[in-house]
Amino acid sequence: MKKDNLWLGYTGTDKKNMNEVCERYKECLDKGKTERECASLAVELAEEKGYKELYGTLERGEAIKAGDKLYVLQMNKSVALFQIGRKPISEGMKILGAHMDSPRIDVKQNPVYEKEGFAYFDTHYYGGIKKYQWTAIPLALHGVIAKKDGTTVRVSIGEKEEDPVFVITDLLVHLAGEQMAKKAAEVVTGENLDLLIGNCPLEQNKELEKEEKEALKANILKILSETYGVEEEDFLSAELEIVPAGKARDLGLDRSMILAYGQDDRICSFTSLFAMLDLADEITDTTLCCLLVDKEEIGSVGATGMESRFFENAVAELVAATERDSQLLVRRALSNSMMLSSDVSAGYDPLYASAFEKNNAAFLAKGLTFNKYTGSRGKSGSNDANAEYIAELRRIMDNAGITYQFAELGKVDVGGGGTIAYIMAKYGMNVIDSGVAVLNMHAPYEVSSKADVYEAVRGYTAFLKA
């Protein structure tokens, strides 16, 4: 079915509202370049709307009632927001889910080394990336260094105008004949994605008998010690992420698009968060939830991924506090729930049309995207939402005047992907993959339509309010 470009139907008021949402979104992208930064920002915005931390509330013995707004922060990397409704939680919730982690390059635990006049950080990439895309672009360093004394040092280098930046070098084209003949996956290897961090050796003390043999490494460690108060061994308990430097920017002469790092999947995380927080002053019948998690890009594993039970545990606490301590009621709460599992969809790119099946592709500026199934080659690993639930969502979106589209992730035998939907479906709840179409998925800079960002917020709001 043909969908008109959203811009053709927007009024002046629509465009004004859209630009306000997109400026808010770009600001969040700039502040949240890691899952920790996103989680911290989500909590900050939630607290401004009156949200309180769940476990602290329970410890103080405060009663939980309709209209209360609570959050759970899991290891500073995943967040669940709850807005308690009038109905018992065991009758089900409306859940917006997305992930906050993005493909990137991580610093190893023993990272600092020098080689032939240069100092480097040794690295290991995270998530599915085209490795060659990460060379010869300005990079920033974000993360934390946890020290044995219990303190945590926050690191952000490369974002301010006065900051230095970093780079992963590439071979000059004049000498790259052999390199250019390789397959794209082999042009740059994982072990060659090391970050260039210095070229100046530590000044030697001529009066001392023993001079520093690794003077470049020593100078880097001296700078880190003086600036952050950390020693080399502190890297053992550090989480440092290498991401593209710079802010989210308007794209195009018409400023109709956004170019930024991490839009997979922060475009769904922040729009879901906006929809949730914009309803903070309302008391709804059904309990609302916004679930923003980590580790999706590597299989949703670990204590902060969707495969962990932190969300289920939080629901159990809420059920016990508002109804009674019953695992049966917890299972009912989860199985009776409805969820939009939001992740980016592959936007149709006419320059690479052969990878798409056009009639079932997602297009930029055509609205919120629903994927009945994701997976790959025969729907492997997909959730595959049922027809009745899709019909209900169509009714909700149509009644609210939301523009939406249904799509698949490329041609059947070309590839595929997954989200957290199949994990939540294990509880027996109604779940569908939804989200926003982007170009350049998993690249250092991804492209989205401002109109789709705005429509996503409107669509998520309609889902929560229905």
Structural notes for this entry:
This protein is of the alpha/beta class. The chain folds into two domains: about 5-100 and about 260-465, Aminopeptidase (3-Layer(aba) Sandwich), CATH 3.40.630.10; about 105-245, Aminopeptidase i, Domain 2 (Roll), CATH 2.30.250. It is built from twelve helices and 22 strands. The chain has helices spanning about 10-30, 35-50, 55-60, 175-180, 185, 215-230, 265-275, 310-320, 325-335, 385-400, 420-425, 450-465, and strands at about 50-55, 70-75, 80-85, 95-100, 105-115, 120-125, 140-145, 150-155, 195-200, 240-245, 250, 255-260, 285-295, 340, 345, 370, 375, 405, 415, 430-435, 435-440, 445-450. α1 (about 10-30) crosses α12, α2 runs parallel beside α7 and α8 packs across α9 (about 325-335).
